[in-house]
Design brief:
The complex is a heterodimer of chains A (273) and B (262).
Chain A lengths: L2 H25 L3 H5 L8 H4 L2 H12 L7 H32 L1 H16 L6 H8 L3 H25 L3 H9 L4 H19 L1 H23 L2 H11 L2 H29 L11
Helix pairs in contact in A: 4-13, 5-8, 5-11, 5-12, 7-8, 8-10, 8-11, 9-10, 11-12, 11-13, 12-13
Chain B lengths: L5 E14 L2 E14 L3 E5 L6 H8 L7 E6 L2 E2 L8 E4 L11 H11 L4 H14 L15 H13 L5 E5 L7 H18 L2 E6 L2 H7 L2 E5 L6 E6 L15 H19 L3
Parallel strand pairs in B: 3-8, 3-9, 6-7, 7-8
Antiparallel strand pairs in B: 1-2, 1-4, 4-5, 9-10
Helix pairs in contact in B: 2-3, 2-4, 6-7
Classes of the chains: A mainly alpha (273), B alpha/beta (262).
């Protein structure tokens, strides 16, 4: 793609954003529309409007509130990263061990499949009962989701290591540990990395759902959303949603960068890192 | 040659595989003795079990009958020490750079970093891979990757080298380059080599002795001493009458095996 192409795409994106914001602000200002049947929701009461959202954002960002938007965002980001890190490391370790031990994998298979098919949201009340209304509960929830994503990928990766690569390492004098470290782990990592971008997104989902139930002590943007529902405050809800969107994008991009750096040996990543 | 000590002794080796509930004999009654510093090529039509023999020497496949001994010790289901193995398939580690691929065997053996760097540098110069030290394998040609695989094996200085059609996937020109390089490296160290190939000219160019296999089940059809002087020039060699003579003799025998197939 040429630079001119690149700029044109960027320009279009900005134009669409501006058009959306203008339409949103303008249409929500016309009373006649919200009185039309079926279009009642085009009303500041339901979807707020950009000017009101900006005003609420400024207010929530100021020191006049007990819990600022920054504190809430930080809480959400921190919990997401913890859930992600713990989920990735445990999922990777479990995937590696079971991926290399055929019998162990067969023993655990039904349990893993059963637990993974359980809708994770159904666990929220149980997790809250066990871990309370704090930060820990939402990290645990994020972990239960991330663990399985990473586990299945790593498991597949560890199982599909090329046997000839292992043989050639043995002929070069590798011990079992060295084979693990220099052949199996790097081969499996390529699969693990592919699961990181979905993992961070799912970690965020887990955390926000956890925050719905977590109350003020858990804090976070999910708490702001539930609170806004209680007070029917669409502007606050929009502030939370937009913040979550920005956080999601930034984290996904960061992971993508990391992936490209670590997988720079792969031809498809060449010259892009 | 005969006064040299035997290094690899193969006795009555056989291998049968299960194929859809049937026992299929891949190798039968193979007995060969490979001596110190000898370069032996195993030639035969595809499917004659020559790679299976190599895998049994290397301990990757257990024999169904018979034994393989290396330096008097029976090879039984594990990779023997002091043996290098170059696969036909690309087995360089794609996540390691050229230099770190070549260093891996030294790393496994706990060789000091500075010593590693020195030996890797020498190997890279020897293989003409200068400038590619930090390149990842995916950016290299097949010939260069196989050079890396060869140097990675040689850098740990194995006394016995098992090679399974290592140049099978390369074009003729690259192949000749690598023949010349392999011969130069071998002249310097005189490893004991077992080289599996289906390419007769490759076998004549490289080997002291050629073991010709029959079609499946593979048996030894002929053991032929290559009467060509060393050091050999891989290009000029092919223009000599001696080469043509050697080729003609073995081709005649091998031709029977190929012909029987049609």
């Amino acid at each position: 793609m040429t630079r001119a192409d690149h700029r044109r795409v960027l320009l279009w994106r900005l134009a669409i954003l501006a058009a959306l914001l203008v339409a949103w602000e303008w249409l929500t200002g016309i009373k006649a529309i919200s009185r039309t049947p079926g279009l009642y929701w085009i009303d500041p009461f339901f979807i707020s409007r950009p000017s009101a959202i900006l005003a609420r954002f400024a207010y929530l960002a100021s020191g006049q509130v007990r819990l600022t938007i920054w504190q809430m965002a930080l809480s959400t980001v921190q919990s997401t990263l913890w859930g992600f890190l713990v989920g990735v490391s445990t999922g990777f370790a479990a995937g590696l061990v079971l991926g290399r031990h055929e019998r162990l994998a067969r023993v655990f298979e039904p349990y893993i499949v059963a637990f993974n098919s359980l809708p994770r949201i159904a666990l929220v009340p149980l997790i809250t009962m066990i871990f309370g209304f704090g930060v820990l509960a939402k990290i645990v929830l994020a972990w239960t989701i991330v663990f399985f994503i990473v586990f299945f990928n790593t498991f597949q990766g560890a199982r599909s290591v090329d046997a000839d690569l292992i043989h050639s390492a043995r002929f070069l004098g590798a011990s079992d540990r060295q084979v693990m470290r220099t052949v199996i782990v790097p081969s499996a990592l390529a699969w693990t990395f592919a699961s990181l971008t979905p993992s961070i997104s799912f970690a965020l989902i887990g955390v926000v759902v956890g925050e719905f139930l977590g109350g003020e002590s858990g804090g976070g943007l999910g708490y702001l959303i539930i609170q806004s529902l209680g007070t029917l405050n669409a502007a606050d809800m929009m502030v939370a949603l937009i913040s979550l969107g920005v956080i999601g994008i930034v984290m996904a991009l960061a992971i993508k960068q990391l992936e490209m750096r670590l997988l720079r040996w792969r031809p498809e990543y060449r010259g892009r890192a | 040659m005969s006064e040299r000590r035997p290094r690899i002794v193969i006795r009555d080796l056989a291998k049968t595989f299960r194929e859809g509930g049937r026992e299929v004999a891949a190798v039968q009654d193979v007995s060969v003795t490979i001596r110190e510093q000898e370069f032996v090529a195993i030639v035969g039509p595809s499917g004659c079990g020559k790679s299976t023999i190599l895998n049994m020497i290397g301990g990757l496949v257990a024999p169904s009958a018979g034994t393989v001994e290396i330096d008097g010790v029976r090879v039984a289901g594990r990779v023997p020490g002091n043996v290098g193995y170059v696969f036909q398939k690309d087995t360089v580690f794609p996540w390691r750079t050229v230099a770190r691929n070549i260093a891996i065997g030294l790393e496994y053996r706990g060789v000091a970093r500075t010593e590693q760097a020195r030996r890797v540098r020498d190997a890279i110069a020897l293989a003409g891979l200068e400038g590619f030290e930090e390149a990842f394998p995916a950016t290299l040609s097949g010939g260069m990757r196989q050079r890396v695989a060869l140097m990675r094996t040689l850098v740990v200085e194995p006394e016995i080298l098992l090679m399974d059609e290592p140049f099978g996937a390369l074009d003729t020109h690259t192949k000749l380059d690598l023949h010349a390089e392999l011969l130069a490296l071998w002249e310097a160290r005189h490893q004991t080599v077992v080289f599996v190939t289906h390419d007769l000219s490759e076998a004549i160019t490289l080997a002291d002795r050629i073991v010709v296999m029959t079609r499946r089940p593979g048996r030894v059809k002929l053991v032929h001493d290559v009467a060509l002087p060393r050091p050999r020039d891989v290009i000029k060699l092919r223009e000599t009458d001696d080469y043509a003579h050697e080729y003609g003799r073995i081709w005649h025998v091998l031709g029977e095996e190929f012909a029987g197939r049609a």
